[in-house]
Amino acid sequence: MPFDVTELVIAIVKALVVFVALLSIVPVLIWMERKVIADIQIRIGPNRAGPFGLLQPLADAIKLIFKENIITQGADKVVYFFAPAVSMVPAIITFAVVPFGDTAHILGRKVLLQVADVNIGILYILALSSLGVYGIVLAGWSSNNKYSLLGGVRSSAQMISYELPLGLALVGPVLLSGSLSLREMINAQGRAGVWFIVPQFLAFAVYLISGFAETNRAPFDLPEAEQELTAGYHTEYSSFRFALFYMAEYVNMVTVGAVATTIFLGGWRGPFGNIVILQPVWFLVKLFAILYFFIWVRGTLPRLRYDKLMKLGWKVLLPLALLNLMVTATVKALAPQSAIPIMSVLSLVLVAIGVIALTIISARSTRTPASGLREPSAEGAFYTWES
Amino acid sequence: MGELIAFVVLGAIAVAAGIAVVVVRNPVHSALFLVVNFFCLAVLFLVLSAEFVAALQVLVYAGAIMVLFLFVIMLLNVAGVFESQRDPLRSQRGLAVCLGLGLLAEVLAIAVSGAARLPSGGGTLPQDFGSPTLVGLLLYSQYVFPFEAVSVLLLIAMVGVVVLTKRSV
Predict the structure, then answer these.
(1) What ipTM did this prediction achieve?
(2) For chain A, is the Cβ count within 10 Å smaller at the N or the C terminus?
(3) Which residue from A115, A136, A307, A108 is spatially nearest to A214, judged by alpha carbons?
């Protein structure tokens, strides 16, 4: 294989730029979340450190780093030590395949604005997002604390359950674009002249809802539910290791948002999209719109009960994702050339079906509040949701 | 040369992790070493330009199956069980050694006889080698019968689990 030092340098620079950008989005996002939540709750929010409280995340980080690093008695030290890193690393390296722009010409060289364009892009994302759960599960187990363990067990069941609708929701856009590469999917959206959110709105909705669950964010933040589990899997963590978990949650959120932006919202495409400098800007605008939605949902919806969480995942989201996949595949098989316009119309029908299904399920569960959840029996599973 | 180095390093880690799976006392540590082993295999697939298989290896084995293993280990809290009890399958140890040696002989025989049949190397891979499209086409044309047979087998396993664990409600 011919070895080109310049290519290597370019690759390293791109990886560094993405890494630094990702880590610097986190404090901005934390500040944004606190401000938006404050707005929703009619409070002022952080406003002491720096202009508009912008330096508050920095102050928090400094405070966290100088705290004592506590290791519980009886903790499994090696696993306890590695768990925060295990939760952080997949979150960051997922970003390697997300394109934030088209090809730039720098010093006479063509540079893809993406760390790596792999032909299995979506599988790479799914594979890594399925690893994120290890950090949480291992943290919960190694802390030698019953609340941590419960948080870890909850999170593993939750993330395994929601991975299925998450992955199935992404298959619809894959069928329409005919490729697993994220760059190719953005190009397909450009050729079709329509973002995949239009022909695949049901998939988009299922993906976002599963994304909330995958990132353990409200209304699916059961692994760290304060009222029941103190702080869930990171109860015993302090100092910088807690900061790593805290950061991993936000990096995960950015990654889920970036994937949604790329696959459903056209990625870096926008008005005057052929100006390369504008492409990362469009990407960031769409990304922050989705992140705002994440925060908005957190400020609006109460946490789900665990049996309802499982019911939503297995009985609503999974069938809806399968339905969407079935319809998309049928349309693609019958009319390969005009699949996207046909799906754009059918998408309305699918969304109507989705709304009706959700309404029926939620009406049922509110009408019979007591019969839904049986008393956990000694030999039974700790969540039972027959109704 | 690079491939050889990668193979030696990854193979050594994979074998060490594999031995650790059966040697360490703590079931959670065993499961984690198995994850390490799967990762080495995935990287080996990457070295062989089989990106699709590598992604599936991580997605299915490391990401789904092992998480469920961990889930079960933690839920049942079996960590203490093996420490205290004697090995319940002591009688099977001799059998295990015999079968293990047999398997080793088999693998060695295949490796020795198969090495002669391998192409001498130096050839270039086709452009779309190991791409999802190609794997999909092969699975649904040439290997469609084994593929469907495996899917039916998995379905049977699932039905079996439901039958075995279903309690009258």
Answers:
(1) 0.75
(2) N
(3) A136
